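Notes on consecutive records. When two proteins share a document, each keeps its own sequence and its own token line. Never mix them. Below: protein one.
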Amino acid sequence: PVLQTRSLQKRFGGIAATQDVSIALERGARQALIGPNGAGKTTLFNCLSRLYIPSDGDILFEGKSILKARRHEIATIGMGRTFQNVALFDNMSVLDNVALGAYLRGKAGVLRSAMRLDRVEEKRTHAEAARAITRVGLAAHVHDAAGSLPLGRQRVVEIARALAADPALLLLDEPAAGLNSQEADKLTEQIRWLRDQFSLAVVLVEHNMRVVMGACE
């Protein structure tokens, strides 16, 4: 499995937000984590991406425990993620937003690359970012300010940024939140296409059951 958890738990004081979570996710799978608000879905995502330190249990990514991995290492080992609230730099172009994901694959580092101290690296990362943008169907908006796009397309920009880091696993946290039915249907198609195109494992937390049933196995 690309991802395994073993009896994973996260407690906040006396409250168990997640308890005894054991899953195994194969490469190329499309699966959803569903449940009411407060069930612990995002808490589990936060544990997987190391935003939270689990209280007990283990997380294995491609067979290796990542419990001691640092937060900034998670994307570099092959795990991409989006969040409930869109987290883009509104005044930066779509290209520059997505390039932040591509920088993670480089040798110069995010800070050095972002400050344009390595021109060769900058050129390469922008080329990779442009490819990711084209793959998700936003080539026409590559130079637009990210904040000028509708919410549905901003969420797709976030997916492109995650893809630019070349992940083996993509965690999508309520990607259809705030989308109209047409945008949600388009998102469903893109999730299916991502798996088929890149053999990614995709896990989404989602309340829109039409998206869940259309996108997942």
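Protein two starts on the next line and is unrelated to protein one.
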Amino acid sequence: SPVVTELLREPATVRLELAGLSVAEVAEHLAAVRGRAVSAEVAAQVHELTGGNPFFVAELARIMGDEVPAKVPHSVRDAVAQRLSRLSPRCRHVLRVASVLGREFSVAVVASVVGLPVLDCLDPLDEAVAAGLVEPAAEPGGHRFVHALVRDAVQDGLPSGERVRLHRGAAEAIETCHADDLSAHLSDLA
């Protein structure tokens, strides 16, 4: 934003790149919010789900019992919805499609579901990367949601009819894009 750009020009400004909490720090944060310790297994699950994002960790801690909750907390869903509202309609649509494909997704499969050439999906994905919602995956042509909770929140925001249509479109796109060797993608189809 213009304000950040101006602040970065000030000599007293220091830019810090923040990373997520470690598994041990997630365990400490969960214990602080919940008032009691959690198992190492639960801390690892929460870390995987949240990427160590302290806000997401705290919101999960508020609603969890002894196990990691299956539902995305309303506060996380609302925070993700607010971030999505700032994005272009095309970017939001690409992210909704990607959410039904899983945490990691192929740009080619997304493009097939959307009905656009791959190149037309790259700018919306760049927008989502800039917004901190997705990142390039290790596999060429792939992206992934930065946190599983972000993906879950995007998918939870889909109306039932749209979710069903997108799942059907995703299955058809996976069959088309991977027709040469579908065996490696059977779990995606399921």
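For the record: The first strand starts at residue 104 and ends at 106.
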